[in-house]
Specification:
Length: 208
């Protein structure tokens, strides 16, 4: 019974953390919209999911205690996050619609796709602090099989979510031949990134 409850808890918790539109989600979705074939998004999907899995495992195995204990480490993560989100917001705002950039994106080698996916997955302190602070802290309530079930549920959500994002991007490309929806998504995504950056800046002030 405890194992089932832990699995459900982990699934709902991870889903709540991963749902909001952020840099990582936008990139996976955009690759689904840009690539000629859905299979070409596989390197991005796998990289993003593996990075999330790594962060979840680190959180569950106690790194959360270290990050939350050292103020200087939190300050460094928050400061880097503000700069990263400001830059990514500007790039997204000024970029062409995903469909207009498709030809260039399709020529990206796997190495470039993976490196970019790594950057938006591991250089986003907001996601890191959420994963470590929320999932890491929540995992302290479980042990043994229940902890394993909780962790498995969190990991499962990440893998399913990124696959669904890529599929959604592909469907949007098929249905939105003019690129109007994707151009609007660019603007909305940029605003969300800047708003996240301001939120982190506020968090930086509270730490100081």
């Amino acid at each position: 019974m405890e194992t089932t409850i832990a699995f459900i808890h982990g699934f709902i918790l991870a889903l709540g953390l991963i749902l909001p539109l952020g840099v990582q989600n936008v990139f996976v979705f955009s690759q689904g919209a840009c690539q000629e074939k859905l299979s070409r998004t596989l390197p991005v999907v796998v990289t993003a999911a593996v990075c999330d899995t790594l962060l979840i495992l680190l959180a569950v195995f106690g790194v959360s205690v270290a990050v939350l204990s050292f103020i200087w480490l939190r300050l460094a993560l928050l400061g880097a996050g503000v700069l990263f989100l400001a830059y990514m917001g500007w790039v997204t705002w000024t970029s062409a619609a995903f469909t207009e950039a498709a030809a260039e994106s399709e020529t990206w080698p796997v190495r470039r796709q993976v490196l970019f996916a790594l950057s938006v997955s591991l250089l986003n302190p907001h996601a890191i602090l959420d994963t470590i602070g929320v999932i890491g802290t929540s995992s302290l309530a479980y042990g043994g099989n229940a902890l394993a079930a909780f962790t498995l549920a969190c990991v499962l959500v990440s893998w399913l979510w990124f696959v669904l994002l890529a599929v959604a991007g592909r469907l949007t490309r098929v249905l939105d031949g003019t690129g109007a929806v994707l151009r609007l998504l660019n603007k909305v995504s940029a605003i969300i990134m800047w708003a996240s950056g301001l939120y982190l800046l506020f968090g930086l002030g509270t730490v100081l």
